[in-house]
Every structure is written in structure tokens, then in C-alpha cells.
Specification:
By secondary structure, this protein is mostly helical. The chain contains 6 helices and 4 strands, in the order H-H-H-H-H-E-E-E-E-H. Strands 1-4 form a two-stranded antiparallel sheet. It has a two-stranded antiparallel ribbon with strand order 2-3.
Amino acid sequence: TGDVDDVGPGPAQRMQPFDHPVLRCAPVRAPRGHPPQIDDVANFVPSRLTGLLLAASAMMFAGLIAGVRAFATMMRDARLHRSPNSGWPEAAMAGALDRSLAGPRIYRGDVANEPMLNGSGRRNAGPKDIVTGIDLTNAAHLALTLLTVCLAIVA
């Protein structure tokens, strides 16, 4: 039919262990009362730290308003994401860029009706937004590296 799925997964998809035709299924949350996935527990602190570092990077490099907006968006919208951890850095980046991220989209031919992160943000992203997002991510990486080195020196 000409669909991309007809030719099989690409290199990036082949690297993802659960993106196999036999294992493909829609992402679901565990019902209440069931233990969280180990990766949800392992990424609880790192995801929130990443969001904070992105908000701090936005404040330093894009200005006070962008940093405050990134932090406020993260605190307000992070829990809207279906992942207990991914929403924190995604919401921070949405606020920093003043863009709406996530939301309804088509995934493998099915419509995923997800809520928008920073729903009041601009919808159309351009090359400048991509460059700014990369710059903020690099600044957050640098901040984490410096924090790690400082902690290693103190310890």
C-alpha cells in the first residue's frame, strides 16, 4: 500500500527493543494498585532534575520570562503526559520555547488524543525553535556536568 510500515522498521526503530512486530502494542499505564515499572522508579528524580535544569538554562540564555514560563509550565503540565517522567522535561521545554508540544497526533496510523503541554503556546515550530531547544538542552547538559564535578570534588 506504500505505507512506511510495509517496508519494516528503520534503523532507529530496530534499536528499540519493544518496537518489534510481535511485541507492538499501544502504551498503557499499569492499573491502580500495581507496582510501577522499574524505569518509572529509576527515572523519577532524573526527569524532574532535567526539567529544572532546562528551566534554569532557559532563564540564563533566553531570559527571565522564558525561565519562569518553563518552570511554571513544567509544574502545571508535566502530569498531563501519559508517562510519569517524560512530561517534566517536555513541559519545561514547551514553556521555555513558548510552544505547544505533544497533543493529538498520528502514531502508527492511529490517532493518539493526548493533551497539549503548554496549550496556550504557539503551535508552529520553526528552525529557530529547534536550534534554541538544542542550545537549552546543551546548556542543561553542561550544568549537570558541572554539578556532578562539584559533587565529586566535595565527596
